[in-house]
Write a structure and sequence with these properties.
Distance between the termini: 25 Å
Helix content: 40-55%
CATH class of the largest domain: Alpha Beta
Order of helices and strands: EHHEHEHEHEHEHEEHHHEEHEHHEH
Low-confidence stretches: none
Number of helices: 14
Largest sheet: 7 strands, mixed
Radius of gyration: 21 Å
Shape: globular
CATH architecture of the largest domain: 3-Layer(aba) Sandwich
Number of domains: 2
Strand content: 5-15%
Strand order of the largest sheet: 2-8-7-6-5-3-4
Amino acid sequence: MTPNIYLDYHATTPVDHRVLEAMLPFFSEHFGNASSGYHRYGWDARECVEHAREQVARSIGVSQASIYFTSGATEAINLGLRGYYEANKQRANHIITCATEHSAVLETCTALEQLGARVTKLGVDAHGQPDLQQVVDLLSEDVLLVCIMLANNETGTLADIQQISDLAHAKGVPVMSDITQAVGKMEVGLPQLGVDIAAFSAHKVYGPKGVGALYVRPGISLAPQTYGGGHERNLRAGTLNVPGIVGFGKACELASKNLTENVRHLGTMRDKLENELVTQLGCTVNGDKNNRLPSVTNLTFPDLDAERLLRALSTVAASRGSACKQTVAEPSHVLRAMGLTDSAALGAVRFSVGLPTTDEEITLAIDRICNAYKALTQMPAS
């Protein structure tokens, strides 16, 4: 039987067995509601939630009190963007974001435009780097917030968030960042980066789906977006997902503990795959090769639509880009913003490696990808 090879770790990751072990008791034995304040079941659940909050906070270098749990990064992004706009719109209404952001940011900004916000999307260069001069030119007293992702989910390109934050803070403007893909794949210290609000998720770091977090720097005011209780210090109503939160905390602890080794492994696996596909098939790398995550390569295959290749690769799991946009058969907005033609963007595949990825899997994947490509394009076999 031909083994399947998973190379779509930017879409989601498997739950680490140690994370699962930490979670399991909270489905049955320790099932209490963390908001139940009059008995041991609730106290124990609350204690474990707060321990997880500390683990998550430590992984990004912030205080425990600045972390708010959500159902995932998308909810966190909505709470951060909408919450900040609604709480502070009397001061200004202009939001600066980037054309290559995840749809969770872009679509939330579109919704805010309907509420009176003015949104400017920064352009990017051919490597996907935001135009810093445009940031300088746009920053003025009418700017309410700058929202730029740390690591692009499709190309892995790392934005210079620290410089953007310095520019924004000099004008008294806070900075929000989607750090979902960066956590667990690089050192993320939000105070050093100058980030005031940040969103991320458990399932990208070998934790469970359905839980995420929003970091809010002390002194930043947000308006709640859900009502029905005083959970999460009156910011996010709803019964806390105790098993998920415990798993999130454990996943962040493990990611921080083994970060250097993990980064080295990811880079080795990614580079082997990328180098062989570029050499053998003439693929083009999309993104900033000198400043990107170690876990991903975005490659344009010459003279071939990526959808045909992916369908032919029934035993190699990869994607055309964000998992949230897979049902839309159109060129990636990220690649188009970088200046790729529609044809080149439609020929792009995102391969993302993970901690379970082995050298043997990469060797097999290279062979299968090359064979499929040559069969589809009638390229002579080597």
